[in-house]
Design a protein that fits this description.
Layout (H helix, E strand, L loop, with lengths): L11 H46 L2 E2 L7 E2 L3 H8 L1 H33 L6 H13 L2 H11 L6 H6 L9 H29 L3 H9 L4 H12 L1 H16 L3 H7 L14 H9 L3 H34 L1
Antiparallel strand pairs: 1-2
């Protein structure tokens, strides 16, 4: 643009400002990704890369040295045809189903009980209930091994009998269930307590004014509003249950050996294949375990969603 005196008007300042705004926009956009970049790098290097490598390895026979031989689906088929796989899968499902309902019910009732105004010393009760979750799994299993010992166990001493809790495999599986409930109640108690505090007291006060009883408030207000918390709890517990390993092996293993096939969890197959150098089949077991966890999670999502639809109707 030419001015009256013949000089050219400066058009640069608007362009410079536009470029600065563009740089600022890109800076604001990229800044969050720069902050999470260390996690992304660690995730790719330590998790995603090894996971994809194990997926490829599951189609080979490889002992950790020498050449790897391609087998196709043979590792998966061999695992699924192996009797110990189905026995271990049955044990794992038993441990999961047998402990999840009593554990969640006890944790939820404790959270409701502690939240009431009638409970004193809440600041002391909460950490006491959470303590079992921070105890080392091996230490807790050894304690329960002594509690349920046949000859000198505390439980048999109290009841005056010699019940072979850990020698009878039918009873031994229930001992594992007791350990799982004892260890995890405190953790889910804290989760449920946090979920209960997110419910507005005004909703419950309004229901109380309308004449709703304690049971009606619990059934029609508290439980429906806690649905997402319950879904989170059941899915995470299912994932942890399918990865169960330490409790049954410490309780019923001998001198560093893994537990008997009749009580062994599914993860024992992976460890046994690693010990024998069958890295390909161990990878196949891990991916079968991944699929089982995905199926269990999907089923629970569907159940909770269908329940939500029925409740809304």
């Amino acid at each position: 643009m030419v001015e009256a005196n013949g000089s050219i008007a400066a058009a640069a300042p608007p362009l410079v400002g536009q470029r600065r705004r563009r740089r600022r926009h890109w800076g604001d956009t990229l800044a969050p990704y720069l902050f999470i970049l260390p996690f992304i790098v660690a995730f790719v290097v330590l998790f995603l890369g090894p996971a994809l490598y194990s997926l490829g390895l599951s189609f080979y026979r490889y002992k950790g040295y020498g050449a790897a031989h391609f087998l196709g689906w043979s590792n998966y088929l061999a695992t699924l045809r192996f009797h110990a796989f189905w026995s271990a899968l049955g044990n794992t499902i038993f441990y999961w189903v047998a402990h999840v309902v009593p554990m969640m019910v006890i944790a939820f009732l404790l959270a409701i009980f502690v939240r009431t105004k009638f409970v004193p010393f809440k600041s002391v009760i909460k950490p006491i209930l959470f303590v079992p979750n921070i105890v080392a799994i091996v230490a807790a299993s050894l304690v329960f091994q002594n509690l349920f010992g046949t000859e000198y166990g505390v439980i048999n001493w109290l009841i005056g009998m010699k019940i072979p809790w850990l020698q009878d495999y039918g009873l031994a599986r229930w001992v594992v269930v007791v350990v799982l409930v004892w260890r995890n109640v405190g953790f889910w108690f804290v989760v449920f307590l946090a979920g209960l505090t997110s419910i507005s007291p005004e909703i419950e006060d309004a229901a109380r004014v309308d004449g709703a009883t304690t049971w009606q408030r619990l059934r029609f207000i508290t439980i429906p509003l806690m649905r997402n918390i319950f879904l989170f709890a059941f899915v995470i517990d299912a994932i942890n249950s399918f990865q169960l390993f330490t409790e049954p092996n410490v309780l019923m293993g001998r001198a560093g050996e893994l537990a008997n096939e009749q009580v062994a969890p599914l993860l024992n197959l992976l460890v046994l294949n690693l010990r024998s150098g069958n890295f390909g089949q161990a990878s196949a077991v891990s991916w079968i375990l991944f699929v089982l966890i995905a199926i269990a999670s999907f089923v629970q999502f569907r159940l909770f969603k269908s329940g939500e639809g029925e409740a809304s109707e």
